Amino acid sequence: MASYQQRKNGKWQYTISRMIDGKPSPLRKGGFRTKKEAKLAAEEIEHKMRRGKTPQFNSISISNYFEEWINTYKKDKVSNATFLRYINNLNGVRNHFKNTPLREINKRDYQKFIDWYGEGRSFETVNKLNKHVRSCVKDAIDEGLIDIDFTRKVHIHFTKEAKKSSEKHLSFSETQLLTREIVKDINQCLSQSKKPNLGSLMILIGITTGMRYGEIAALRHSDLNLREGYIYVERAWKEKEKDFGETKGKMTRTIKIDQNTTEILKAYLKMNNSANDSKLLFESNKPNEFLYTNASANKRLRHFLSKLDLQIITFHALRHTHASLLLYKRRSIIYVSERLGHRSTITTSDTYSHVIKELREIDNKETLEVINSLY
């Protein structure tokens, strides 16, 4: 309900009653020449309020609104890694727009921002920022703060080609550092008769076998032949379906494992003793989880990588690390393909073309050295 007051300067203002969290929070605006103008303006605001829109008369900046939006809709509702991406994107918005009011930004302004932000960044990075800002802008429209989606039909400008996921892997020395830190962590627990962290064990298997997360999560006692040093890969955990299924490409395989990993697994199985061969290796001890999750495995990996000051990679990138190390050590493409469970060597060649290209250049150089030695 609105009321109207005439100020000492002769101008009119309206006051609209409003309650927020059980407390009075009236809306006021003045400066109208006549009571009729004040009444028309108040009726428009009341109409918007009935449609669920929240009027804002302060010139809230895009930076502050984006920050409020992130804290309202994303904080404690998305993973820590995702939340950090939102904060990084907020910093990009703040650095460019500073205190520019949200309602003063038009399509040209936003395109200039994307052009600025895209310098030295990949399409994926710029596109992710645009998606975050667009979601925020759509909510601002719903709240009645702005009328136009200035992010619509923006051209994503970028100057840096993103790495393929298969190119994101650790070097031999980095993998060596990580492996030793993981083994140290596991052995420390085993020496104290404590069960090692499941994430640490998963990471070790990922590094030394190149298995996918779902394949590792699905492992049972019966899938390990530790007397001869083999792991049988026959199924995979489908996290979305919350069920076991076939491996990718329906490719079962047997993977030879090294003596060090074998001994660690023997010690773990002895501690995880069960007469049931179908017992899972990675059953979660959390009440709402069946198996140790991919998110938890990635979190554990980030912990070790940060501790060692190494580049942050995903758990799946351990598979690419394993494959790249074997190729650089001149294991045959056929062997690597079979170990990874690829349907053909074509998949392996396509996935690791960057490694093969480097090796071909080395081969060319060494071949010419051999030929030149004939003269």
Report what the structure shows:
The chain has 375 residues and is mostly helical. It has 3 domains: 2-50; 62-142, DNA polymerase, domain 1 (Orthogonal Bundle), CATH 1.10.150.130; 171-357, Intergrase catalytic core (hpI Integrase, Chain A, Orthogonal Bundle), CATH 1.10.443. It has helices spanning 35-50, 62-73, 80-97, 107-117, 123-142, 172-191, 198-209, 213-217, 259-271, 294-307, 317-328, 333-340, 345-351, 353-372; strands at residues 2-6, 12-16, 19-20, 23-24, 27-32, 224-225, 230-233, 236-238, 243-245, 253-256. Strand 1 and strand 2 form a beta hairpin. Helix 2 runs antiparallel to helix 3, helix 6 (172-191) runs antiparallel to helix 7 and helix 12 (333-340) crosses helix 13 (345-351). 26% of the residues are buried.
Question: What is the rounded distance between the termini?
Answer: 100 Å
- Count of structural domains: 3
Radius of gyration: 30 Å
**What is the CATH superfamily label of the largest domain?**
Intergrase catalytic core
Based on the coordinates given, report the CATH architecture of the largest domain: Orthogonal Bundle
Low-confidence stretches: none
Shape: elongated
Total beta-strand segments: 10
Largest sheet: 3 strands, antiparallel
Q: β content, as a range?
A: 5-15%
CATH topology of the largest domain: hpI Integrase, Chain A
Number of helices: 14
Percent in helix: 40-55%
Summary, kept brief:
A hairpin with a 2-residue loop joins strand 3 (19-20) and strand 4 (23-24). This protein is mainly α. The chain has helices at residues 35-50, 62-73, 80-97, 107-117, 123-142, 172-191, 198-209, 213-217, 259-271, 294-307, 317-328, 333-340, 345-351, 353-372; strands at 2-6, 12-16, 19-20, 23-24, 27-32, 224-225, 230-233, 236-238, 243-245, 253-256.
